[in-house]
Amino acid sequence: MFSLPPLDEVLAGAHVVSLPMRVKFRGVQAREVMVFKGPAGWGEFGPFLEYDDDESAKWLASALEAGWLGQPARVRDWVPVNATVPAVAPAQVPAVLAAFDAVHTVKIKVAEAGQSLSEDAARVGAVRHLLPEAKIRVDANGGWDVEQAVSALRMLSVFGLEYAEQPVASIAELAAVRVALRGTVLIAADESVRKATDPLAVARAGAADLLVVKAAPLGGVRRALEIVAEAGLPAVVSSALDSSVGISAGLALAAALPELPYACGLGTVSLMAADIADPSLVAVAGGMEVREVVADPGLLAQCAAPADRREWWLQRLRRCYALL
Ligand SMILES: O=C(O)CCC(=O)C1=CC=C[C@@H](O)[C@@H]1C(=O)O
Ligand SMILES: [Mg+2]
User: Fold this and answer.
1) Atom 9 of ligand 1, nearest CA residue
2) What is the pTM of this model?
3) Catalytic residue at 107?
4) Rounded to whole angstroms, what are the CA distances from 295 to 41, 76, 87, 110, 281?
5) Does 7-70+298-323 carry CATH code 3.30.390.10?
């Protein structure tokens, strides 16, 4: 880690915002994040509320890298971006997709708690019906066991799948699903990379065909680049339901990776009803120009979280800073 800025300097410039979602995503109705401005740019500290301090400290390292060190050199100026469809009813699919401009790749959430495989199939079918040519990937967030994953992915593969993200929870189960499907559906690891104590364990176990990498949970853009290089697997860059400031760190990662074979999951600002940058970092014509993002003072004020939530985040920042 580079030398940390003084805590007071970080606290002094911190804003806490609450961004309402247009569609509920991973149970979240409004996304709370903290952002601050350092000499190198804006950084976002937005671990999900239930994450503990050890896990959240990595998100802080990423935010401080963006604010005080700046992002590494880029090798491209434009990155392809996928649309993201939460676990909505099929009838809602057209409205969700309408929020995205020119969609070539779609990621669809499946295996949501309380839903059935036929609901997943109906949602994936609705996307395929609207977008016959698009690449479709599904993300189960580890919601299936091995047997369920194998039968679900065999069934969903009739719609044509680019890959399946984290169909099962553990690395051993990922390996078992991958063997059972024998390459008919590619397997991507997300939680098994970003929430693992060893982000390289998946690659060593041969448990996935590709890795999903997110700048904040991995501790920053530079750390994510190292992980991809060491893993030796193709990588998909994705986001963590961030504001445009957080998305810009993902964009910096996508811009700096030597190879970028897949569209990036960086389009999630389109799922939000408010943002703190104008213009927002959303995909146009299926991708994004690489750029830096500056938070807008008026929007920061409009989206400001209540005082008790601001205090909660300031305490969280102090605790996580002490862990770096
Ligand atoms: O990859 C995408 O298309 C969007 C980002 C996305 O799906 C996620 C962001 C944040 C938390 C996760 O539940 C989720 C994911 O699992 O990939
Ligand atoms: Mg995922």
Assistant:
1) 240
2) 0.97
3) no
4) 10, 24, 30, 33, 11
5) yes
